[in-house]
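> call design_seq(struct)
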């Protein structure tokens, strides 16, 4: 079995290593799944690699199979619970809007049960939360794997979908709404972003 990359101070790495009381819903050599401690809906799983990868911005084209496996496991777990995977909201928080710096996929179902504040926190393809479709398209359009894959210690100058829009472009009505959402996130959720105890 290959040696897994772990970070001593990472709470998710501790869960992977069995050093926390969290009971996994699923675990193999590459993936671990457990419930979010503050669920946004009836089902709210966190799907994590057992390797310590800091966040979605550190992924490259070589990680496509890993992300696709995370999605496949999410689908299986929801179907085992008679939940409709086609209605689930799947995505990653984009840095710096994550509370635990260990890559984790949010799997939320059904989205109709999400409260107002959580709707903002998990707003698809915003400055702070990106969907699976967006991420996979980004990874697949990257050049071939670099000489050394990105690790938790690498720095990458990458942006979320909204931040990737051309600078200087005049805001249309949709973008104005997103700007308002950003202000709301910074004003109400921002106090939570600095909290070390949440798993989101």
């Amino acid at each position: 079995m290959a040696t897994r990359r772990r970070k001593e101070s990472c709470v998710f790495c501790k869960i992977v290593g069995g050093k926390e009381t969290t009971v996994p819903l699923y675990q193999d050599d590459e993936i671990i799944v457990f419930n979010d401690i503050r669920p946004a809906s009836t089902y709210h799983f966190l799907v994590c690699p057992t390797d310590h990868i800091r966040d979605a911005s550190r992924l490259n084209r070589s990680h496509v199979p890993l992300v696709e496996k995370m999605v496949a496991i999410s689908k299986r777990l929801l179907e085992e619970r008679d939940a409709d995977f086609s209605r689930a909201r799947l995505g990653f928080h984009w840095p710096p809007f994550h509370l635990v710096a260990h890559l984790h996929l949010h799997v939320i179902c059904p989205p109709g049960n999400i409260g107002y504040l959580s709707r903002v926190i998990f707003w698809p393809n915003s400055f702070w939360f990106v969907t699976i479709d967006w991420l996979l398209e980004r990874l697949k359009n990257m050049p071939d794997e670099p000489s050394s894959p990105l690790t938790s210690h690498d720095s990458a100058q990458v942006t979320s979908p909204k931040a990737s829009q051309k600078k200087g472009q005049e805001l249309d009505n949709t973008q104005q709404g997103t700007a308002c959402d950003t202000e709301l996130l910074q004003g109400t959720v921002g106090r939570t972003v600095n909290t070390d105890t949440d798993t989101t």
